[in-house]
Structure formats: C-alpha cells, structure tokens
Amino acid sequence: MSTFSIFLVLIIIVAFLLVLVIMVQNPKGGGLSSSFGGGGSQVVGGVKKTGDFLDKSTWTLATILVALILLSNITLISNDSTESKLLDGRDVQTTAPSTTVPSAEVPATATDSTDGQ
C-alpha cells in the first residue's frame, strides 16, 4: 500500500468523524449539552461543558484534515512516477494526427417513409 493510499484512508476517516461531530451540534448553541438538562456547566460523563468539547473537537478534526490533505499532496508530488511524459517532452509522437473527417454517406436504398394511401 502506497503512502498516498494511507493518507487517503486517513482523510476519509477524519472527514467522516468531522461530519458526525458537526451533525451532533445544534446551530443555535443548544446541541448535545441542552439535551442533558440544559446546563452547560453540568458534568456529563466526565466532560464539563459539552458544547466546548464539541467545538474544540470540530476545530481539531478540521486542522487534522487540512494537514493530512497537505501531506498527501506532498507525497503525491514527490513521487517521480506520476510525472507526465508529455510535459517532459519524452516519448511524444512526432507525427500529427489525421485531420480527415469521414463523410456521411446516404444509403442508396433509402426510400420515402410515406404510405401509398
């Protein structure tokens, strides 16, 4: 498995987690913390202020996603096998492609489609 493939799998996983964290949040500030009694300072499962935790996890996952995308791009660029042969001028055909256009021929047996009525 290439390095780019590993980064691609990690990018997909982080993007999926980011979508989940964003879907749990409420755009009006309630979110997960309001469903447990409405108190933002209430301790729920050992996490104080659930809204702050979701906000920090969103920013963390977004930062990780951007970093993975940049790293995957660096590994893709550093791979010499992906360079274009056309841009380097190697193995390019020197003959021009044929520019003749095939003529549209009408079959000789074409008849009028109207009935003789």
Automatic annotation (TrEMBL):
<keyword id="KW-0472">Membrane</keyword>
<dbReference type="GO" id="GO:0065002">
    <property type="term" value="P:intracellular protein transmembrane transport"/>
</dbReference>
<dbReference type="InterPro" id="IPR004692">
    <property type="entry name" value="SecG"/>
</dbReference>
<keyword id="KW-0813">Transport</keyword>
<feature type="region of interest" description="Disordered">
    <location>
        <begin position="88"/>
        <end position="117"/>
    </location>
</feature>
<comment type="similarity">
    <text>Belongs to the SecG family.</text>
</comment>
<comment type="function">
    <text>Involved in protein export. Participates in an early event of protein translocation.</text>
</comment>
<keyword id="KW-1133">Transmembrane helix</keyword>
<protein>
    <recommendedName>
        <fullName>Protein-export membrane protein SecG</fullName>
    </recommendedName>
</protein>
<keyword id="KW-0812">Transmembrane</keyword>
<dbReference type="Pfam" id="PF03840">
    <property type="entry name" value="SecG"/>
</dbReference>
<keyword id="KW-0811">Translocation</keyword>
<dbReference type="GO" id="GO:0009306">
    <property type="term" value="P:protein secretion"/>
</dbReference>
<dbReference type="GO" id="GO:0043952">
    <property type="term" value="P:protein transport by the Sec complex"/>
</dbReference>
<feature type="transmembrane region" description="Helical">
    <location>
        <begin position="6"/>
        <end position="24"/>
    </location>
</feature>
<keyword id="KW-0653">Protein transport</keyword>
<dbReference type="GO" id="GO:0005886">
    <property type="term" value="C:plasma membrane"/>
</dbReference>
<feature type="compositionally biased region" description="Polar residues">
    <location>
        <begin position="92"/>
        <end position="102"/>
    </location>
</feature>
<keyword id="KW-1003">Cell membrane</keyword>
<dbReference type="GO" id="GO:0015450">
    <property type="term" value="F:protein-transporting ATPase activity"/>
</dbReference>
<feature type="transmembrane region" description="Helical">
    <location>
        <begin position="58"/>
        <end position="77"/>
    </location>
</feature>
